[in-house]
Amino acid sequence: MKGRSVAELLAGIVVLLIAAVFLVYAVTNSGRASGSNSGLQLRAKFDRIDGLAPGADVRIAGVRVGSVSDQRIDPNTFLAVLTLQVDGGLKLPDDTSAEITSEGLLGGKYVALVPGGGERMLANGGEIQITQSSVSLESLLGRFIFSVTQMAGNKPSEGEQPAAGASPAPAARP
Predict the structure, then answer these.
(1) pLDDT less than 50: residues of the chain
(2) Using CA atoms in the order 140, 67, 88, 36, what is the torsion angle rounded to 10 degrees?
(3) Which of 24, 66, 85, 140 matches a 20 to 30 Å C-alpha distance to 109?
(4) Hey, is 83 helix, strand or coil?
(5) pLDDT at 33
(6) CA 146 to chain centre
(7) DSSP letter string over 102-144?
(8) What 3-state DSSP class applies to 149?
């Protein structure tokens, strides 16, 4: 009986050690480890940032090049101000644009940077001037439903005369 409890204790310790190794691996290779403040720090202002949280990816051409390190509201303009931590090896033109986009219909949101063709480069602490805010899926669906109901409401029902200037519908053939 005593040999069995020692074996169970050793198996439990081994399982905990393996779990700890996986945890350390996940934290160090996720790109979200704390204390990684090297690189270029940029700011961008948006009307809305629906669903974007600190730690979200910053991508260029779909490749992760940084993350969102902070978000706040500008008390004067009431715009959302994002602080972006971008790879220091990148030289981004000053006419680079930033847009908030999603990974798919139900995917998470990220900031997509589109480098411009300007001669001057953004410096550390610089601001991206050209931005496009998040598009609300609920708003788009609401507009679509509204337009469909408007179209359905404008069709003349059977037996009604078409509006003035409209050609009459062809008669059905027996």
Answers:
(1) 33-36
(2) 170
(3) 24
(4) strand
(5) 47
(6) 26
(7) ESSSSSPEEEEEE----SSBPPTT-EE-EEEPPPPHHHHHHHH
(8) helix
